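Lab notebook: predicted structure, single chain.

Context: the supervisor wants predicted structures on file for every construct in the current expression panel, including those that have not yet been purified. This is the next one on the list. No modifications to the sequence; it matches the entry in the shared construct table.
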Amino acid sequence: MPNPVAINQSNKTAGFRYDNEKIVDMKDLQQEINRLKREKAVYKAQSRMLEHFVSIARDSVDKKMIRATLQKTIDVSIELTGAEKGSLFLLDENGVVIESMLTRTQATPEECQKLVGTVLNKGLAGWVRHHCNIADGNCKLAYVPDIQKDERWLTLPGQPYQVRSALTVPIIRKKRLFGLLTLIHSRPDYFDPESIELIEMAAVQIGVVLENATLYAKLEESYRRITCAKNEIEIYSGALDFEMKKGRKIQLDFLPEKIPKIPGWEIETFFHPAIQVSGDFYDVFELPSSHLGLVLADVCDKGIGAALFMALFRSLIRVYTFSHEALSGPSYKAMWSCELNVLKAIDDTNAYIARHHEKLGMFATIFAGVLNLSNGELTYINAGHEPPLILSDAGKIQMLPPTGPAVGLLPKMNFPSCRAHIDPGDTLIAYTDGVTEANSPANKILGRKRLHLALSKRFSSICETIDQIKRETFAHMGSATQNDDITLLCVRRKNILF
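Prediction complete. Output recorded below exactly as produced.
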């Protein structure tokens, strides 16, 4: 065997070697090492991109985050309905409780486990679960106006709170029961049809969140196995995109199902979300004494967070509007009562969002108005929103500029109202900044000037007006990616000739 000590000292940098063949092998090995280093660098870059992509998902499956979300769901439900307490159970595919927030908050883990089993076996939540047949589409809420007259309610030993009326709502997404939400009050017959309908609507949104959380959990598992499952990453990413598209459709269903048909008036809307789920929403609802409520809003940010706040903003405005109506009493004049209800609802919504969600920094620009259908008088608040337009029959444009700041920034903000008038032949055009800030391939926005120019002619119908705005916006965008939601709410007073 050759002596390693006899190696030529001028070649020490190549390491110990015995012949020319070994020198070639060392060079090949160095090349292989360099190739592996490059692949490792690519792998790390891919991992960082994936980590950024699923960061929201990683938070959503965190135990503390889930419990905080459950508690916030209960808090919002109590705030909206005036209930005194609530509980929430999350179920897996087999109907087993995977997480819960109980009314009895001070119970030990052992007590919680026993209470959950008892309630889901003999209580109202258990009654809803046992009678829920999702395959047949038969899974309804249970309302107990007075627990003393309904055996479905189970009074637990040592119960530290008083209950007289109770409501349990199933949280359903397609053919899966995700959870059970129960609200209680110490007065009998407390929950009215409006509050029950509101909670049913909220349950739909909760179901969307839970369904997406399931997908995120799977995506997180894919993230942990990235070293041996790169192909699965693409599958889950595609699945996420598919779920986001489903989320958009669900959000469309959350908007008003039907727009009121008012003699002498035309009302039309257009909603075109961007790639992600939307933070835009609109609402149209009839009020007493021939008045109409109009709302168009744009929640800051995009994605799931904006979509959830969209649902919260819309629900708050609705519930505050109709709660004020109930409290206004006969002493108010009809028109003043309607205006007060809607405009006061903006104040209350701002206070709630700023007080309860200050750390998240969420806000919305909102145009909210009350239209007197008898004479065309419009009383409105423009809370930092794009100025709506009143387009006359002759093509003249009147802007309704902001009257106050965006909603949700600070708890004590003033939202003064203004008045305008819609004459026969006039059209009110409210829109979100997805129209005026639509980007062209050359990175130029549409702008208000071009929008106004496109409207400077006579239109025979409200549909023709909306079509003109759509044509101008999408023609300007061309092949550019839509980076914001496009929403329109238009009201036209017919030009009736006698």
